[in-house]
Amino acid sequence: MLEVLRAMREEFPELSPEEIFYMATLGGAKALKLENQIGELVPGKKADLIAVPQGQGEEPLAALLKAEAVSWGMVEGNAVDLEWNQPSRRS
To answer: Total structural domains in the chain?
Structure first.
C-alpha cells in the first residue's frame, strides 16, 4: 500500500498528502460502499493500520509517504508480526 501512496504522490504532485491519505482510507471505503465497516479509526469499524517512524517535527502524512520501514501493524484491531503476518506478542 505504501508503494501505491508514493506512486500517487509522484503521478499527481498537485494532490496534498491529506488528499492522498483520504483516498486511501475513508474515500476508498466510500468508493467501495464499505464506509460503515472500514475507512476510519472509530469504535465499531475494523482497524487495519501500520505505524511508520516519524522524525522530530515531521508532519505525520509526509513521514508516511516517505517511510522506508513499518514499525508495526494491526489487522482487524489485532497486532500482527509484519514479517510473518502472524499475531504478534503485542496482542
So the answer is: 1
